[in-house]
Amino acid sequence: MSVYEQIQQALTEAKIKGGKNGLNCIAELDMTAVEQAKELDACRKTKIGDFWGTPILVKDNIDVKGLHTTAGSLALEDNIAEKDAPVIRNLRKNGAVILGKTNMTEFANYTTNGMPGGYSSRGGQVIHAVDPRLSPSGSSSGSAVAVAAGIVDGAVGTDTSFSIILCALDNGICGLKPPVGALSSEGIIPIAKTLDSAGAMARDFTTTLRLYSAMREEPLPKLQAAEYNALKIAINTANHKMMSLGQNKFRRHVTRLLKRRGASLRKIEQMPTPLQGTIMKYEFKAHLEEYLGTSAASRKTLKEIVEYYEANPDTMMKYGNTLLKVALEETPGGLQSEEYLRAMEERSKMMREVREELADYDAVIVCGPTNIMHFCGLPSVTIVGSQKNAFGVRQGVMLYGVDEYRLYRAALAIEKLIRDER
What pTM did the predictor assign? Predict the structure, then answer.
């Protein structure tokens, strides 16, 4: 099949499955994708890149030249990107065809308390690909649903706190948030650059890893699955009682398989911290306005955005704007405030402690809600196996670690284990 035929097929699939009458995961399609495909076909003999002719969808808070970048908010509906974000530029260098943008939870779920995952004023409500009764999770909802539904093999998301890895878990796909700083944050509407990262989503971890590699300035080295009997795995038991019975049962199944294959396992407890919320609260205004200052958006300040919400309650205030107002009104002193500086100082201390505790481990299995890996900027992944839960969603586990290559080798090994055995 030619690239042109492949892209035409993907566009048709996206319109039917991903449109408003379907899963509503597509925010906008790039009609230049057909021309991109023709250009690739014309130079087929000189194929370059790991994703030659592959259609990729991108979360609507990342700049793609000629398309809107709104973070799901009608307040930014006039923001048309003048150039690609570096992560998108790198994907194109690797032969990818950007098919369009995906719907997302508004402002990456930093709009208000209680907003449903996958809802935005621009896009409406994203629908779960497997069962419409389920939440599509957030905030990379559209990207995850598009992959789970088979519209594309891979999609780009962003993650500040579980927006890729939990979203991937809830949709039965794989996700990867790299170490903060491994990918450029330029051209991405932020929450907090201390915590944010773009990342990759796909149906299997090998493809997820390849997609992440194609987003980088320099590709990853070739990574092989670790040997089971050489694996050192920590099990973070923090808040494990907050997970469902089904999730706990599957996690125990995974640990039994690892023990059977000779892996070394040890329980630890790394609890969540409320200081992550402090950093998000203080950085949101400063970093958002930094992005808006160089964008095509007419509204350049958080104050203007909040005023737009309150002036248009029918379209903008279905769930409120509490987090936007907190970031605007409750951050005296901005990034020089004592509260923010104390949180950053505590983060540096916790990063040292966490790295020291995990230095000997390839990966940590997450048992319950904890934001420690996001707070410390550590790489984290979701891998899924062949087993499905009662709703028909493939089950998986979330992992994090201090060394990204060791983490990815462990993830490749565990993925193989949970797909081969039941």
Answer: 0.97
